[in-house]
Amino acid sequence: MISKKKYSIILSFVDFFYSCFLLAIPVLTSNLVDIAVAASKLEHPDLMPLVWNIVGVSIAIMMDILLYMLEGFLYFRFSLKREKEIKEDLFYRIFQNEYHQVATYHTAQIEQLFTTDIHNVIRKELETIPDFVRQATRLILAIGIVVYLDVWFLVLILSCGILGFGLAKLYSKLIRPHHHRVLESEGKFNGYILESIAQMKLIQAYDATRYSNDHFDALNKNQIEAKKKRNRILFVANSGFFGFSNIIYLFALCYGAYGISIQILTYGSMIALVQLLNNIQTPLISFSSLWNQYNLAQASRKRIQDVYMLSKEENNNLINDFDSIVFEHVSFAYHDQPVIKDFSFKIKKEEIILFQGPSGIGKTTVFMLLMGFLKPDAGRIYMKYQNEEFPVSRNLFSYVPQENILFSGTIAENIYILTGKSREEAIEALKLTNIYDEILELPEGLDTVLKERGSGLSLGQIQRIWIAIALLSDRPVLLLDEFSSALDSQNEEIIMQRLTELHKTIIFISHRNKEMENQRVIPFVEV
């Protein structure tokens, strides 16, 4: 999905015909000048050939204008369409991949994929490739016309052109790794900006602004140094090609003047050669920047392609009911540090289970293993249903995380994003979690706009909205991770009582002393 050739082909055809009409102009201009010079020497010249050549030049110029406008119209149309297609496909693909692999990317790296990298890929498709066709067409047609006018002039120009092409290839080889380093250093730099703003309270609370600034300066210095090294190569290459092209232009003027003086060139031929030189010179210069754009796009394309190469998540979400869930001799470690070792338990349908133990002992990790976000290093996790064993399906679980974070946007949008439920259904769930009356007191009710991470609500309000979201999902198992840590005791008692009346399997983590009716404790001990 990253590449779609039809847009490049259409624009390349338009640019091809644009170049054909562009190259017709110097030929017709040459004839026009020679006819005018010849007519000026006659007492009663026939002006019809002059008129027909003026018409021909006018038509060629008008066609160039129309094709230029068509190319611009198609570019803007195709670029928006491709941006929509690539962003949609990349976003959908990210959520098809295994979570633990996507989690290796920094948020800023993902953001860069959707901005800089996609822009570079689209520019390659809709600018670089069609522009290469245009410039190559100009170069080939110009060479053909120069052969017709003066073959020796062409030999000298082509000798310079071959030298220029070789230098462009060398430049391409040198610049590619620098493009990659710039993208990587920018990703780290932008990532730290996002993180430091998100953690601004902590930085200020620890009076760590100086140390934060030191780290910012180091990252900024790294990305500036990467850009400096790249820009040095860009400067040398662009300056070299500019100087090279001007030397060729000077040579053409001198050669044309000499040709007229010894009568091997007409005035029209000299004008045509100078115009054609521009159509040889411009492609040679542009190939440098086109190589630059192409290599930048290839680096971006590889970064996007790396996401497509991540392991896709196995689809085991077909079964949404169970008789029991079994953890059988499961072990798991973070970076060779064991968290769970030879851990076993069995949970029956509609049981209420409390995972009990100190912080950092692996309770949340078990939740992640149950939902398939982590894979066990040893042992089996499965469910039994109708006397058969199946992999545990994520469709079984409604999850309330311990992180009290919501999306920016309205409360109603948050609920729809995660459940797809109607406004009326959302209201019933919010009433059940004892939060709806408080939402009504907000200026816009359910349409109250939350800032980043749900800022604008208290932690207790966010927790109750999350519980409402879990209930709206209407799945047989509730996974509640510190779901009442920010609730007052009254709300905690009301919600716990209502949850026990739902006849669902409930697995919860809590460090508070409140208990649910008929709960069973699964203790966690240090490995």
Fold and architecture overview:
α1 packs antiparallel against α2 and α11 packs across α13. This protein is elongated. Helices cover 64% and strands 12% of the residues. The model has no long low-confidence stretch (mean pLDDT 83). The chain has 14 helices and eleven strands. The chain has a five-stranded parallel sheet with strand order 6-9-10-3-11, with helices on both faces. A four-stranded antiparallel sheet has the order 2-1-4-5, covered by helices on one side. The protein has a two-stranded antiparallel ribbon with strand order 7-8. The chain has 527 residues and is α/β, with parallel strands linked by helices.
Main attributes of the structure:
single chain, 12% strand, 527 residues, elongated, alpha/beta, 14 helices
End-to-end Cα distance, whole Å, is: 46 Å
Order of helices and strands: HHHHHHHHEEEHEEEEHHHEHEHEE
Q: On the 0-100 scale, what is the average pLDDT?
A: 83
Number of strands: 11
Q: Structural class of the secondary structure composition?
A: alpha/beta
User: Helical proportion?
Assistant: 55-70%
Largest sheet: 5 strands, parallel
Beta strand %? 5-15%
Model regions low in confidence, pLDDT < 50 over at least 5 residues:
none
Strand order of the largest sheet: 6-9-10-3-11
> Which word captures the global form?
elongated
